[in-house]
């Protein structure tokens, strides 16, 4: 359809006359149908089209008019009559004022011959509307955003055409002083409904083409667009009092002088300073002030390293001496772990906001050099804090994310995180994103770093408004930040503030940027600092005088000097002072440190039975479930009667028992509600009522904790980061992330490598997140077989050559490890390890290699007896058959873990070797159970020791287990290997090859002569 709305939306909007000309090319000789009629220009100055009226609506009016001409407005009646009569395009419509004198149909028909001046008036008004819309859509193209004046932002389309070339819109110089009625889609008139064209253009340029560029017309919500128009188009809306200007100047002083102080004291130290974007500090403080005014009392922030020390000092209000002492290379670390560099550390602080006189808590999440990796972590922590305080709309807790321009455009985690923003179980009800747009990434300029004009274009996918602003105009920055905070508070949607600035130094203070960007840095060397420019402006305005300005500088310099003097008294570095997620009260009990013990993880039979009965029923009336699910629930019920559990029921009982104890449980990942392997079914769906669901787990106990189970987006990096952040908020929650298949954690490797594995060592931050990784060689090909256990084991921090000498071996060893890695072979052990995760007096990440075929394996069942009070997680499950009865006669001990145990027992039975070969299961791989395996090795003095695994030799557990087994036995014997040969891929894709490899593995494991030649 050719209509004025689509014309106005084009890159170069057609004038009214051009529109008429275009339409005339498609004009039929005698229109009789709506398809013919739609080629005509529309009535009411095309306003319905420009304000969103659909062609369907016009079509309905047309057919209604055919039946009854009086059923439509008089203007439409005339339009349809004229068009049907064959009027030329541009003449069918007559302006409403002229209709007031019409009284008869014959008079209306006589208007087929339109007056030329009326036609020109309509065209001119349409042209002005197109002009206004063009400024709203593309005014940011010519806004003065770059402080350096050398912006390389490249738009594929032509630049906005503005005065004096108004002829582009079918207007001429003589029209500049004509008065035009303003449409309802603009606020440039203020209280006036009409303005001269010259004034319209001036006001549009002031609103959209100065130091602020606004991208918002892609938002498909009229109310939101109108809200933004009002904030930027209303004349005189960007006004500041003298007090506000003085506050802004003081904040700029602190931001600038802090960096200058660090440069004077430690000129050769890396600090990734904020020079060139000092306005970031007043920007963040403005967002926090406005949000506090709107009711927010907790702000969680994430940011890369550039400017972090300044944010810590002047936004979070970290003690300056604690920052300065980080520069002393001679100080020893007081806390456990390796620590991290000062510009990666986080902080948590509760203080009074002096602008609103309200308490506010600020948390800056620690972040590695992987610039955007903290984004989902911040969102998860924010979601958790909202959840625990009952903030269902994000009115009390909010997040602010800071980004670099190159990383914002270049790193996919930004896109993944944006797409969590409106999902029910992941939304944080709006995030304020602040981009420190240095216009360069390390040494790479934007032309080589992105394909889009702006680094912020990724935010358009979620209809987030984007406010570009020249960072050398502090008042424009503060105004934009106020609007961004108000937007978030009003609509609870994401918003982006793009601070277009520059980087005065190189990537770090030691780097020479002139090597690669000589012209940019020649311009930067000439650039007057923003503090100096703004101070000169305020002095010229009489807001402050020179002595007042110098006194403000001297006052802050004195604060820094005094803090520096105090920092010299520090003898030890305390990383614990930099915690971003403290857990008050968790590590002590009655004022004393908690004991290193773990109670029994068993449960009484009454609770087991109750949970099992709920798990096998539908606790909601008139709820129709799938027939196949009915059979599954019936099978569960039969298991409960027989006092047995399978994998899914064991998980159900672990979760249900913790809910009774007040522990919130959150299970997240792709397809976790049903379970990838159709085994879980924690969310039931009514087969007759759309979107009606039931979660039986939330119907277990009268005052239980809530259970959250949520299918995630098809993201691993973003969702795992989110769940990690959620687990940071409270130690009294069990947070689990399940991969669809174990190897899918590959795309979340950054979160695992940078946060989960070393988190406590780097930031003294414990975390109890659980990773459920389906694993097992089932002949399904290389992609869905291995969860890559070798990677997790390689990153364990226990020493393979040292036998630990510990009291309370099992718990103390857990306390000293960086994470726990298990591969359970029984449902009962899975039940215990989940409960142990909460009952421990500390928190460690838990990696569980979960089964696939064992989910329904008839032998993978456990009795209630293995889960009763007094029972606990078994780090090692010894052989309990004939071999254990006569250990001196045993010729070989097979150590294994996970599913392969069932293959080995089946083969042992087939070969009738139960008395000759013992099979010992290592359920907890890390920390390694030295003590229990030593007992097992000593139990069979004459036996060969063999590690048996289904994974390839260069994968799986062998490289981790072998040296530790040898340390366990003091290298008294060799430790042989039975398994697949080394390979590049995790598994074969050929079913026959898979079975051949499995049989070779079993032959090797049970051939007692297999290692004689090697020996």
TrEMBL record:
Belongs to the alpha-ketoglutarate dehydrogenase family. GO terms for cellular component: mitochondrial matrix; nucleus; oxoglutarate dehydrogenase complex. Keywords: Calcium, Glycolysis, Isopeptide bond, Magnesium, Metal-binding, Mitochondrion, Nucleus, Oxidoreductase, Thiamine pyrophosphate, Transit peptide, Ubl conjugation. It catalyses: N(6)-[(R)-lipoyl]-L-lysyl-[protein] + 2-oxoglutarate + H(+) = N(6)-[(R)-S(8)-succinyldihydrolipoyl]-L-lysyl-[protein] + CO2. GO terms for biological process: glycolytic process; tricarboxylic acid cycle. The keyword Calcium applies. Residues 645-857 form the Transketolase-like pyrimidine-binding domain. Its main location: mitochondrion. The keyword Nucleus applies. Its EC number is 1.2.4.2. GO terms for molecular function: metal ion binding; oxoglutarate dehydrogenase (succinyl-transferring) activity; thiamine pyrophosphate binding. It comes from Junco hyemalis. SMART domains: Transket_pyr. It is found in: Mitochondrion matrix; Nucleus. This is 2-oxoglutarate dehydrogenase complex component E1. 2-oxoglutarate dehydrogenase (E1-like) component of the 2-oxoglutarate dehydrogenase multienzyme complex (OGDHC) which mediates the decarboxylation of alpha-ketoglutarate in the tricarboxylic acid cycle. The OGDHC complex catalyzes the overall conversion of 2-oxoglutarate to succinyl-CoA and CO(2) while reducing NAD(+) to NADH. The OGDHC complex is mainly active in the mitochondrion. Involved in the inhibition of cell proliferation and in apoptosis. It holds the Pfam family OxoGdeHyase_C. Its cofactor is Mg(2+); thiamine diphosphate.
């Amino acid at each position: 359809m050719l209509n004025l709305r689509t014309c106005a939306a084009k890159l170069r909007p057609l004038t009214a006359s051009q529109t008429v000309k275009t339409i005339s090319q498609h004009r039929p000789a005698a229109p009789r149908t709506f398809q013919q009629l739609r080629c005509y220009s529309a009535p009411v100055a095309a306003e319905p089209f420009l304000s969103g009226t659909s062609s369907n609506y016009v079509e309905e009016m047309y057919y209604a008019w055919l039946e009854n001409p009086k059923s439509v407005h008089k203007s439409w009646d005339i339009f349809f009559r004229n068009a049907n009569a064959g009027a030329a395009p541009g003449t069918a419509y007559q302006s409403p004022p002229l209709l007031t004198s019409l009284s008869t149909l014959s008079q209306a028909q006589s208007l087929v011959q339109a007056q030329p001046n009326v036609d020109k008036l309509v065209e001119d008004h349409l042209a002005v509307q197109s002009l206004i819309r063009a400024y709203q859509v593309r005014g940011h193209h010519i806004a003065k955003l770059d402080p350096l004046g050398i912006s390389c932002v490249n738009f594929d389309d032509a630049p906005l055409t503005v005065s004096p070339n108004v002829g582009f819109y079918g207007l001429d110089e003589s029209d500049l002083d004509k008065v035009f009625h303003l449409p309802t889609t603009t606020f440039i008139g203020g209280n006036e409904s009409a303005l001269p064209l010259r004034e319209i253009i001036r006001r549009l340029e002031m609103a959209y083409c100065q130091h602020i560029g606004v991208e918002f017309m892609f938002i498909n919500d009229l109310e939101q667009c109108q809200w933004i128009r009002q904030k930027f188009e209303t004349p005189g809306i960007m006004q500041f009092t003298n007090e506000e200007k003085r506050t802004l100047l003081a904040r700029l002083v602190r931001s600038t002088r802090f960096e200058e102080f660090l440069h004077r004291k430690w000129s050769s130290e890396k600090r990734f300073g904020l020079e060139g974007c000092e306005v970031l500090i007043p920007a963040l403080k403005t967002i926090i002030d406005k949000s506090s005014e709107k009711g927010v009392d907790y702000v969680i922030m994430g940011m890369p390293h550039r400017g972090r020390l300044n944010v810590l000092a002047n936004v979070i209000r970290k003690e300056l001496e604690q920052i300065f002492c980080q520069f002393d290379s001679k100080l020893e670390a007081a806390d456990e772990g390796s620590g991290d560099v000062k510009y990666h550390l986080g902080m948590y602080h509760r203080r009074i906001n002096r602008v609103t006189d309200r308490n506010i808590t600020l948390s800056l999440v620690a972040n590695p050099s992987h610039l955007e990796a903290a984004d989902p972590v911040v969102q998860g922590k924010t979601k958790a804090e909202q959840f625990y305080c009952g903030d269902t709309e994000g009115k009390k807790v909010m997040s602010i994310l800071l980004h670099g321009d190159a990383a914002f455009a270049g790193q996919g985690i930004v896109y993944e995180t944006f797409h969590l923003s409106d999902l029910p179980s992941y939304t944080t009800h709006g995030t304020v994103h602040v981009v420190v747009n240095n216009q360069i990434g390390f040494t790479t300029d934007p032309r080589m770093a992105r394909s889009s004009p702006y680094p912020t274009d990724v935010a358009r996918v979620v209809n987030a408004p984007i406010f570009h602003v020249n960072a050398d105009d502090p008042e424009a920055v503060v105004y934009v930040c106020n609007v961004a905070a108000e937007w978030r508070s009003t609509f609870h949607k994401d918003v982006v503030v793009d601070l277009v600035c520059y980087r005065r130094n190189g990537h770090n203070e030691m780097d020479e940027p002139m090597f690669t960007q000589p012209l940019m840095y020649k311009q930067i060397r000439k650039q007057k600092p923003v503090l100096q420019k703004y101070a000169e402006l305020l002095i010229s305005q009489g807001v402050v005088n020179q002595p007042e300005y110098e006194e403000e500088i001297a006052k802050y310099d004195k604060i820094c000097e005094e803090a520096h003097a105090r920092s010299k008294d520090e003898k030890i570095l305390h990383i614990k002072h930099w915690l971003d997620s403290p857990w008050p009260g968790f590590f002590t009990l009655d004022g004393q440190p908690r004991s290193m013990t773990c109670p029994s993880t068993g449960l009484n039979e009454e609770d087991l039975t109750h949970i099992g009965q709920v798990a096998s029923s539908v606790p909601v009336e008139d709820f129709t479930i799938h027939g196949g699910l009915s059979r599954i629930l019936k099978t569960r019920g039969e298991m409960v009667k027989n006092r047995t559990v399978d994998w899914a029921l064991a998980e159900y009982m672990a979760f249900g028992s913790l809910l009774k104890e007040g522990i919130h449980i959150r299970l997240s990942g792709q397809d976790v509600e049903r379970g990838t392997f159709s085994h879980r079914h924690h969310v039931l769906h009514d087969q007759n009522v759309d979107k009606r669901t039931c979660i039986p787990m939330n119907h277990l106990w009268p005052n239980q904790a809530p259970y959250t189970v949520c299918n995630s987006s098809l993201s691993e990096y973003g969702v795992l980061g989110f769940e990690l952040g959620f687990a940071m908020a409270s130690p009294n929650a069990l947070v689990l992330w399940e991969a669809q298949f174990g190897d899918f954690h590959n795309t979340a490797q950054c979160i695992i490598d940078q946060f989960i594995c070393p988190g406590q060592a780097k930031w003294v931050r414990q975390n109890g997140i659980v990773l459920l990784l389906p694993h097992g060689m089932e002949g399904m090909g290389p992609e869905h077989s291995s969860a890559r256990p070798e990677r997790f084991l390689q990153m364990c921090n226990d020493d393979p050559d040292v036998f630990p000498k510990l009291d309370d071996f099992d718990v103390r060893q857990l306390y000293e490890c960086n994470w726990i890695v298990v591969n359970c072979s029984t449902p009962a052990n899975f039940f215990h390890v989940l409960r142990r995760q909460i009952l421990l007096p500390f928190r460690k990440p838990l990696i569980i290699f979960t089964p696939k075929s064992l989910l329904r394996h008839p032998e993978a069942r456990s009795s209630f007896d293995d889960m009763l009070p007094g029972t606990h997680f078994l780090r090692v499950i010894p052989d309990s058959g004939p071999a254990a009865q006569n250990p001196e006669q045993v010729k070989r001990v097979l150590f294994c873990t996970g599913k392969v145990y069932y293959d080995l027992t089946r083969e042992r039975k087939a070969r009738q070797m139960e008395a000759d070969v013992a099979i010992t299961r290592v359920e907890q791989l890390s920390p390694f159970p030295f003590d229990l395996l030593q007992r097992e090795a000593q139990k069979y003095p004459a036996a060969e020791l063999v590690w048996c695994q289904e994974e390839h030799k260069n994968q799986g557990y062998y490289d981790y287990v072998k040296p530790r087994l040898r340390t366990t036995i003091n290298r008294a014997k060799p430790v042989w290997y039975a398994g697949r040969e080394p390979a590049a891929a995790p598994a074969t894709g050929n079913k026959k090859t898979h079975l051949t490899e499995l049989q070779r593995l079993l032959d090797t494991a049970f051939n007692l002569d297999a290692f004689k030649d090697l020996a």
